């Protein structure tokens, strides 16, 4: 396969998954492969939810909708335009995937295959139904992918490079185990929002999407607020109120009740509204149903703090407080070139 053949295959994959959007599952009669794959993928979505209660139909569809837009031809070509794909020597690249949100490892999967390498995928047990089915669909679209995609639950062996995502603890294991191999190893990261007190109701409403989508389990979910001294949280609570039905999800409600009990027994000061607790805390990674906050006095000091802690932060949501700020409501809509941990995966894959 040449690069254009690989691009064309992923574009067609995007057209297939576009049928499973947040607006409902609707068959596109122009996709001839539906007779073989449409009902099967619906079943995989059902299995994914039954296996992992966090993977609701809504959240899976949200992920698929995002990927269907990213896989449009103009987006892929814009993403790859700056790279030189000449003289690529195909290697075997292992990917160890996280399982916190649906298809969280798809960008690495796409990157390895689009650069012409073979991929060996070791999935999280939390997210093991969707990607293998999409890989089969990809092989059906472009037979050149056959034999170049492997899924394994065994110990990884016979590979040339690795992309591994995990916790800070597992990252230390990865760094030791994969020493001597070309690698990208990702650790825990969380996202933050900087508020000034001048946000509109619409901006705070948009921020709620950054907080609650995927129940806050993604690294791009906002888990901490930076607010000015004497900030009044009333406007914030009003802005996020439309997400109050989230408390009716049993797994979320159980976490809310548990964490609230722990905080109360520890006599921590809390603000809460029945479905979200906010707690003053210097940490970046907050538990489910909890948002940490920290006061700041000066924006320049805050910028210095964010820079000093950049290895802990995936995104900063703000109105231009930092040069690379993400707009309110946009953390879960990254471009293909918005690389996790700001590590250019394509550049890495082109030089191994």
Automatic annotation (TrEMBL):
InterPro entries for the chain: Ald_DH/histidinol_DH (IPR016161), CoA_reduct_LuxC (IPR008670)
Secretion signal, residue range per the UniProt entry: none
Pfam families listed in its UniProt record: LuxC
A GO molecular-function descriptor: acyl-CoA dehydrogenase activity
Keywords on record: NADP
Keyword tRNA-binding: no
Biological process, per Gene Ontology: bioluminescence
Record-given protein name: Acyl-CoA reductase
Source organism per UniProt: Gelidibacter gilvus
Phylogenetic placement of the source organism: Bacteria, Pseudomonadati, Bacteroidota, Flavobacteriia, Flavobacteriales
């Amino acid at each position: 396969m040449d690069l254009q053949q690989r691009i064309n295959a992923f574009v067609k994959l995007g057209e297939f998954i576009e049928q499973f959007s947040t607006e409902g599952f609707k068959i596109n009669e122009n996709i001839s492969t539906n007779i073989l794959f449409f009902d099967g993928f619906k079943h995989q979505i059902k299995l994914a939810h039954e296996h992992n209660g966090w993977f609701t139909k809504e959240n899976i569809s949200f992920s698929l909708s995002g990927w269907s837009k990213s896989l449009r031809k103009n987006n892929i070509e814009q993403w790859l335009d700056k790279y030189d794909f000449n003289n690529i020597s195909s290697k075997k690249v292992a990917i160890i995937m996280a399982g916190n949100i649906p298809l969280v490892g798809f960008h690495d999967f796409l990157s390895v295959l689009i650069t012409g390498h073979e991929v060996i995928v070791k999935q999280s047990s939390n997210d093991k139904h969707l990607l293998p089915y999409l890989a089969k669909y990809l092989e059906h679209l472009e037979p050149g992918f056959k034999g170049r995609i492997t899924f394994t639950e065994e110990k990884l062996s016979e590979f040339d490079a690795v992309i591994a995502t995990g916790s800070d603890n597992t990252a230390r294991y990865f760094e030791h185990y994969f020493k001597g191999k070309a690698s990208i190893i990702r650790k825990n990261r969380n996202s933050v929002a900087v508020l000034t007190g001048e946000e509109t109701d619409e901006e705070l409403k948009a921020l709620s999407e950054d907080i609650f989508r995927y129940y806050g389990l993604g690294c791009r979910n906002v888990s901490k607020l930076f607010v000015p001294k004497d900030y009044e949280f009333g406007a914030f609570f009003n802005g996020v109120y439309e997400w109050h039905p989230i408390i009716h999800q049993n797994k979320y409600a159980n976490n809310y009740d548990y964490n609230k009990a722990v905080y109360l027994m520890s006599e921590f000061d809390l603000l809460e509204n029945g479905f979200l607790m906010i707690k003053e805390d210097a940490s970046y990674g907050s538990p489910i149903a909890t948002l940490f906050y920290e006061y700041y006095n000066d924006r320049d000091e805050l910028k210095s703090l964010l820079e000093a802690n950049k290895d802990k932060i995936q995104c900063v949501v703000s109105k231009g407080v930092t040069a690379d700020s993400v707009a309110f409501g946009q953390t879960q809509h990254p471009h293909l070139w918005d690389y996790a941990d700001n590590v250019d995966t394509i550049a890495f894959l082109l030089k191994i």
